[in-house]
């Protein structure tokens, strides 16, 4: 999977590579006892570059595919599975509450915090193998907590955010786990 890098990360990588080239030239022109010191610095620079290249996420390292998303699981306050929806093969999934205006794919009408869920609260869209979530201008907002993180971020209406297996979606106070 190829991820786009921001300009500043590319700039930092170029600086690291320039430093490495400089170190190699320096080591070749110095006495032998400097080689061990410069070797340590060079190895550290390569490791930092690798971390920046993968974004610090070993799941996104080159050659490793992200886990395929196949279902959404509704969790209760204790983290126990209440209900699940299969989304494998779908291209778009509407999350909300069924109403007179229409149906939704993930119906949260019967969940504990249903009064905080909008009829059309959020939408998941698949582009290729990747899924994106957007808040659909809901009343109480949509949040996302990335897998392995402890902080959650509130989505801005109609600005898609990439999601994957292990991420947690917050629809008001309702928790949906992406699997």
Task: State the main characteristics.
single chain, 179 residues, alpha+beta, six-stranded antiparallel beta sheet, five-stranded mixed beta sheet, 2 helices, 11 strands, 25% helix
Determine Rg (CA atoms, Å): 23 Å
Q: Bin the helical content.
A: 10-25%
Number of helices: 2
Which sequence of strands runs across the widest sheet?
Answer: 2-1-11-10-7-8
Overall mean pLDDT: 82
In terms of per-residue confidence, which ranges show pLDDT below 50 for 5 or more consecutive residues?
none
* Ends distance: 19 Å
**Class from helix and strand fractions:** alpha+beta
Q: How many extended strands? A: 11
Order of helices and strands: HHEEEEEEEEEEE
**Proportion of residues in β-strands:** 25-35%
Spatial shape: elongated
Main sheet?
A: 6 strands, antiparallel
Describe the 3D structure.
The chain has helices at residues 7-28, 33-54, and strands spanning 71-75, 81-86, 92-96, 106-107, 120-127, 130-135, 142-145, 153-154, 161-163, 168-171, 174-178. It is α+β, with helices and mostly antiparallel strands. The strands form two sheets. Strands 2-1-11-10-7-8 form a six-stranded antiparallel β-sheet, with no helix packed on it. It is elongated and about 80 Å long. The protein starts with 6 loop residues before the first helix and ends with a strand.
């Amino acid at each position: 999977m190829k991820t786009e890098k921001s300009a500043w990360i590319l700039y930092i990588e170029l600086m690291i590579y320039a430093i490495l080239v400089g170190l190699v030239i320096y080591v070749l022109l110095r006495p032998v006892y400097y080689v061990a010191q410069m070797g340590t610095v060079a190895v550290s620079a390569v490791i930092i570059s690798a971390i920046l290249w993968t974004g610090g996420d070993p799941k996104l390292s080159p050659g490793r595919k992200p886990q395929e998303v196949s279902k959404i699981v509704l969790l209760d306050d204790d983290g126990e599975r209440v209900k699940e929806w299969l989304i494998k093969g779908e291209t778009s999934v509407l999350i909300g509450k069924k109403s007179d205006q229409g149906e939704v794919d993930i119906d949260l009408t019967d969940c504990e915090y249903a009064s905080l869920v909008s009829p059309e609260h959020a939408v998941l869209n698949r582009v290729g193998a990747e899924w994106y979530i957007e808040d659909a201008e809901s009343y109480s907002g949509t949040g996302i907590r990335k897998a392995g993180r402890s902080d959650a971020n509130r989505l801005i209406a109609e600005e898609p955010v990439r999601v994957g297996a292990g991420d947690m979606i917050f629809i008001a106070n309702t928790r949906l786990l992406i699997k």
